[in-house]
Amino acid sequence: MSKAGLVSVCAFLVCGQSVLAMGSAEAGLRPAQAPPAAGVAETSRVALKLKQGARAVSADKAARKLAKQRFAEGEEHYKLGRFEDALSAYSEAYDLLPLGAFLFNIAQCHKQLGNHERAGCVFNGFLRETPDAPNAETVRQLITESEAALAAAEEKRRQDEESLRRQEEAKAAAEKAAAEEAAAKAAAEKAQAEEAAALAQAEAD
User: Fold this and answer.
1) Which of 52, 101, 129, 146 could make an S-S bridge to 8, C-beta 3.0–4.6 Å?
2) What is the C-alpha separation between 122 and 135, in angstroms, rounded?
3) 154 or 80, which is more confident?
4) What is the average per-residue pLDDT within 62-73?
5) What is the pLDDT confidence band of residue 141, given thresholds at 50, 70 and 90?
6) pLDDT for res 76
7) Residue 30 per-residue DSSP state
8) CB 100: neighbour CB atoms within 10 A?
9) Cα 118 vs. chain centroid, distance in angstroms?
10) Are 135 and 4 in contact, with CB atoms under 8 Å apart?
11) pLDDT score of 195
């Protein structure tokens, strides 16, 4: 697994421990004995808050589990060169659990797919969210490579457009020359025909 993958897994473990600790702490809470003045309503509000908190923790744990599954799917797709599928899986994982480490994998997919502008943007996002990442220097180099690839692609596009423009101009010039030649030939044939007709008329007279 890549460094980014290790970072992501570590992030899952740390976050998972935090969620378990949170769940244990909340599970141990019990509504305090309401003072006589507070009455049943206050006790009900406390119980409702505890129930809502427990549901939130449960939903968060489910999202983390699903994000981990999507990330693992992305890793498998990436290893097999299925970068479109890997990008989709990594993106779903990030939507479920927006860990900065996931952005590295997303950016790598864009880079492999030739989306150099997008790759550079996501790599920069990774550095913003994880400025102390151990592979930060590598990511800066990847940004430089993406920018260079983007510049090269832009230059190639410009050259292709220029080449196409010249081809179209040459084609138009050739078509114009051919049309002028055909017109000149037709005019010469017409003049020759008229001259022959005039000679024939002269002989007849």
Assistant:
1) 101
2) 15
3) 80
4) 95
5) very high
6) 97
7) -
8) 18
9) 5
10) yes
11) 86
Q: Which of 131, 132, 76, 83 is nearest to 107 (CA)?
A: 83
CA-to-CA dists, residue 160 to 96, 164, 165, 168, angstroms: 42, 6, 8, 12
* Other Cβ atoms closer than 10 A to 75: 21
Residue 2 DSSP one-character state: -
Q: How confident is the model at residue 89 (pLDDT cuts 50, 70, 90)?
A: very high
Residue 48 CA to residue 55 CA, distance in Å, equals 11
Name the residue among 91, 95, 104, 108 with its Cα closest to residue 134.
Answer: 104
Q: Could you give the dihedral angle defined by the CA atoms of residues 33, 34, 36 and 40, in that order, rounded to the nearest 10 degrees?
A: -120
Cα torsion for 59, 64, 69, 73, to the nearest 10°?
120
**Model-wide pTM > 0.70:** no
- Per-residue HEC secondary structure of 130-177 comes to CCCCCCHHHHHHHHHHHHHHHHHHHHHHHHHHHHHHHHHHHHHHHHHH
Return d(Cα 43, Cα 34) in angstroms, integer.
6
Phi first, then psi: give them for residue 128, nearest 5 degrees: -65, -40
On the 0-12 / 13-18 / 19+ scale of CB atoms within 10 A, 71 is buried
Number of residues that this document lists for the chain: 205
